[in-house]
Amino acid sequence: MTVSPVRLSVIVAAILAAATLRLVPHPPNFSPIDAMGLFGAAYLGRRWPALAAPLGALLLSDLALGFYSGMWVQYLAVALVVMLGWLVLCRVSLPRVIGAAVASAVLFFVVTNFGTWAISGMYPHTLAGLASCYMAAIPFFQNTLGGDLFYSALLFGGLALLERSIPAVRSREARPT
Which of 63, 71, 91, 141 is the most buried (most CB within 10 A)? Predict the structure, then answer.
């Protein structure tokens, strides 16, 4: 897939803008990172840039915000979200974007909280301890889901609006001949 320089510039600018939003004060887990991973998976066309965008944003923001134990679990979860995007968003549509955003929030919740249970020492390594970990994380899930839906709407919807109003932004497949 060949992407026009204008379209690629718009996609990269959207990803960079979303990446900087992680540094802006926000409610816990209301972050653009998962949506950025889905957006990159759908539009960057290559696998490494789609992975590098959200993981690089995490790394740069962690350099500014500080590193923490178990951060590799969050990086793993985001990489899995990108892979989800490759599977689900091979064709972008509103139902697919909504479904991918919901699935990414669930995937992130399951992976990161399992990691917390497994390595933090905060919970006993029993089924009851795992259940307690997930129960304690439910208030954060609503922010993850809200952030994934909001930022997916912003990124995917913003590109759709630009495609309608600026012909150079449209993909070659979408241009009239």
Answer: 141
Higher pLDDT: 55 or 172? It is 55
Domain containing 67 — which CATH number? 1.10.1760.20
Select from 76, 38, 44, 40 the least CA-distant residue to 58.
76
User: Which backbone phi and psi does 26 adopt, to 5 degrees?
Assistant: -155, 160
Alpha-carbon gap, residue 10 to 118, rounded angstroms: 40
Mean pLDDT for the chain overall = 90
Q: Domain span at residue 144? A: 5-174
| Domain count of the fold of the chain | 1
Please identify which residue in the block is written with the tokens 């304690």: 136
- What is the chain's alpha carbon radius of gyration, rounded to the nearest angstrom? 17
Half-sphere exposure of 14 (CA within 13 A, CB side): 28
Q: CA-to-CA distance for 114 and 2, rounded, in angstroms?
A: 39
Its pTM stands at 0.89
Query: What is the tens place of the pLDDT at every residue in 52-88?
Result: 888 988 888 888 888 888 899 999 999 999 999 999 9
